Amino acid sequence: MNPPLAGTLGIDFGTSNSAVSWAAPDGTARLIALEGAALSMPTAVFFNSEELSTHVGRDALAQYLEGTEGRLMRSLKSLLGSPLLLETTEVNHRQMSFQDIIATFLATLRERAAQALGHAPTRVVMGRPVHFVDDDPARDAQAQASLLQAAQAVGFEEVSFQLEPIAAALDYERRLSAESTVLVVDVGGGTSDFTVVRLGPKRIQQRNRKEDVLATSGVHIGGTDFDHQLSLELVMPLLGYGHLGPQGREVPSRVFFELSTWHLIHWLYQPRAVAQAQALWTNYADPALHQRLIKVLLQRLGHHLAHDVEQAKIGCSERSGDTVLDLSYVAPHLQVAMTVDALEEHLHALLARTVACALDCVQAASLRPQAVDAIYLTGGSSALRPFQTALQAAFPGVPLVEGDLFGGVASGLAYSR
User: Fold this and answer.
1) Sign of CA dihedral 145, 150, 156, 162
2) pTM attached to this predicted model
3) Which among 97, 146, 179, 347 is least buried, having the fewest CB atoms inside 10 angstroms?
4) What are the tens digits of pLDDT across the range 202-221?
């Protein structure tokens, strides 16, 4: 490989998807293909126990969904700031901490960037949400420190951080021909972040943009929370969630909450967790519901369910039409419809909290909602139609500009020198 060239690698390590961009000094950022021609990659790691191999991204998801024996890890970013981060788990006959698993994924991103660039980058700007952890500055600082440690462990020598919504703003600014006051909305898999910022062609060359940032805010709600809620409302009742037992009491709900949460699902496959679920049979008036739950755990179908809920949500939103989840792999002919009305109803409370955070950000900038020139959307979950409808109601007359939902933050990070 050639010696490192001066420039900046931007890594958007996301809860659901990740992207990487490179910018030479005074150059235009370009996204780096990570899987074939794909410019973003699911943040997923699969440890194949049949071949004792490690896989990432779409390859990881495909191997798991095809039934290959092994461990799938998703929503790794959600563990930052959590006590679980340093706990170890057995993968392919060895103990690994979740911190090490995050480093494994970052190492792959660096390797693929090196292949594309012809040299291994040493300087990186990592994206971070406004809050890794809500209302806990100490845990928030620990989350960034853990991500720093993981980046250094895979060979990055100079590591800095930029708020993800500010990075998105720096990318959007390259397309503007006039001064604008913009609300940047970054809704990812785990967080929703907002920034009110002054942008324009005359400001691009300024190295210190601190005075242009009028306000930032964030809330720990994102796409995985939407999936969690939809799973609880539509799928988990088919396994017994909310089911009344012989004594008229609901089946204990903890197993369903964990089965609807990406980064907790794998714990339910442990023998102790399965035994606890099996012991719930006395709480069921309908044994068929309990049998479905146990089948999901014994055959390790939890991630399959979560993936199907996520895809149904995307399909329902994109087509603005009903989508059917085929759950025949759980029980013959089992299916459930996800309708547009259900999407709006079940996500209403989460979306209301997210939009309220956006309004708080604009208020903190001493602006009225109508005074914003544009709302710039980035992050995959910002494409959710009910969310965009709620935003338009809160900011009447303000145009919504949909940016590069999966690559905009990475590009902006490469500009953050």
Assistant:
1) negative
2) 0.85
3) 179
4) 887 776 777 889 999 999 99
